[in-house]
Amino acid sequence: MTEAALKARQRLIEGNERFVTGKSTTKAIDMTKMEELAAKGQKPFALIVCCSDSRVPPELIFDQGFGDIFVVRTAGNVVDEVCLGSIEYGAEHLDIPLIVVLGHEGCGAVKATVDGGPAHGALKAITDKINVSYSRLKASKNIYAECEDENIKNTISDIKNNSLIAHLISQGKTEVIGAKYGIHSGKVSFF
To answer: In 10 A of CB 6, how many CB atoms?
Structure first.
């Protein structure tokens, strides 16, 4: 991993530790920072691809403020061409050295897929992506957790297989890693 990616990961780890211990330092609204970002533009240090679940707000769980992280959120933390376009933008145009695919315990999209309920309309696109992960697993008592982990790995693979991201990785300009948020503990574990 590059030095810039290591520093970004460490900053996320330290922010999550502050969050877990109740010592968050980020202000809810920092008008000075907002004005600075409006004038100078954004320079986020990490890109987080995560679930839309309202219990998993990346800015809070990593104790980061305005302009610190670039976030792409979808149910089940899956990516399609539109999401990949946002990831490409962050990695190429904002020079973000670290892309983190953040899954979480108790993911409703994963549970719905594993339980096999009918999915219609656009929701089917999400469950189809998660089914790729689910189809690789054998039945077990931990099937939901295993599918959540496999889904994170599958999304990492989808991102790394994007030609622009693969090129940026080969040049040492960005890295893609996985992590999982514990909804009971607040702790993020990096893969």
So the answer is: 13
